[in-house]
Amino acid sequence: MKHSVNRPPTPDGAEDQGNEPTLQEIINIKLIESGEKERLMELLRERLIECGWKDEMKALCRSYVKKKGRNNVTVDDLVHLITPKGRASVPDFVKAELLQRIRSFLMSAAL
Amino acid sequence: MCLRSSSYTSPKPCKHLADYKLRHAFDGYDSLQNCLKTTPIGRTRVDNHNTKIPRCNFCNGYLGRLYICLMCSSISCSTHILLHTQSKSGHDVAIDIERSELYCCLCCDQVYDPDFDKVVVSEQIKGSCPGRSNKRRRLDSGMELDLKKSKRLIAMRDGRAKSCYPLGLRGLNNLGNTCFMNSVLQALLHAPPLRNYFLSDHHNRDECKRRYGEKLCLLCEIGALVSAMFSGDRSPYSPAQFLYSWWQHSSNLASYEEQDAHEFFISVLDGIHEKESKVRNSSKDDGDCQCIAHRAFSGSLRSDVTCTICGFTSTTYDPCVDVSLNLDTVNLSAAEKTGLSTLSGCLNLFTRAERLGSDSKLHCQNCQELRDTSKQLSISRLPLVLCLHIKRFEHSLIRKTSRKIDQYLQFPFALDMTPYLSSSIVRSRFGNRIFAFECENSDSSAEYEIFAVIAHSGMLESGHYVTYLHVNNQWYKCDDAWICEVDEGIVRASQCYMLFYVQKLLYYKANKDLSCNASVESR
Fold first, then answer.
1. Do A8 and B83 touch (CB under 8 A)?
2. Which of A10, A82, B219, B418 is most buried, with most CB under 10 Å away?
3. 3-state secondary structure of B381
4. Where is this region: Disordered (chain A) (predicted)?
5. How many domains is chain B partitioned into structurally?
6. Which CATH architecture has domain A22-107?
């Protein structure tokens, strides 16, 4: 399988933002430590299956693989294919529910 | 862990994975065993027991897909994983941390190794405690089909018969809102195992009367019916004797009111079983019962109830003679623009893992507490004849109303039940790993062919049932006393209520014996 090797950008060594974790990182760490992130991920997976989002993504992948041929597709290709479409097609009610859950988590964790 | 099943084709490893295996065999996999963590619902991730969250060595990122190198356990994100393999020769294979899947950094693609999956699956099973009782139920297909006898019967055909109609097609008179009965009888009498059983005189009416002297025997009545249907006489037959017999058996349903065809179907099978178990004086459970009803229709449903907290799964098996499906109206995927409801959609809905509400918590043996649970059904043993019942009649006890769901349902003529088998469902729960499942039942096939469709038209209170039969490559509509040939398009467009499929091998064998012309065979 010939494949032009993607050259990733040379890591910027100086991009060490000091040792200060950003707010996002702090929240993420708290979510993971408490196990809430795992629960949220499960909830998200459930909702995305229920509303047909997963089937839609599957169908996209299938048609792509059919077009390109089974041996000419990598996982990376598929990820790049469906990531933008996937992000755009998450239903609003799913986003709203998860945001609500994160908000209430933050309120209870801030104490 | 058993050997891989031959029906499951696994992808070949890439050159780099193969090289890695040659050099390091299972060292990397074994050291992984202590680092795998399974969530209750079955996702396995790599957990290095670090207190910190995994971050990419190059960019310190923690988002997206992260990979851990099998050789040096260093973590890289998907953008920088190639850098890692370039900087360290031989570090070609890594594991996706979130998903426990092998990744080849040089091929930039996911790769598969049954040995790796074996390790992951054994950890997953260890994680959810042992204690499931998996009784391996084997389908006993020891049916004696005396085909020679039935061949003789066919040879003696009545000259009055319309010669191109296959044997066995005969109208049934409506005796007063009995289309529910007629439609089911047409389907049952053409189910190959049942038809052959009665045509081969396995239940001899004279002997039955002599031995048991009972005036009314449901099996005798069905036998009489089968003889009448296959006699060659094409004039519509009145199954009055049968109706009377059935009324004796199911006295609660004895009336001239329109009944539910499915309810009738169940009660007939029940009647056959009762008589048979009386005769044989046996009280075997439905799974091993040898009465013709169970030999033909009995299958087994597996129900897995999983604790969402600890992952402990309790499995039960229940015998069933049919599968009742809800229509997949609510969850039509957005991809199906036409909004079409399909049989596979209904079957998917039936086998989908369902989270039971928090108001119905169950006691988990492992946690010793009431917990939220997830339940999933699958078919552990397929019957010879598969009856699928579409739940179109909704009865609401709260509102004391009933209504009929007219939604059109698309169904196939050839049905592959593999995705709904316990082996497939359980396998997908483990993330589609390559491994053989203990209960894999390779003796019975999962491919079915349709032979009868019971369709309902009209409203709940005043509807009408007809049966479409597929005999010798031709579809026939059986509308009480009237039988006519119809195009398959008509059948596909009908509003199906009960679908009857028979195992493919049996179907072709059965049809072969019934062909009017000796040469008719091909499909």
1. yes
2. B219
3. strand
4. 1-21
5. 3
6. Orthogonal Bundle (1.10)
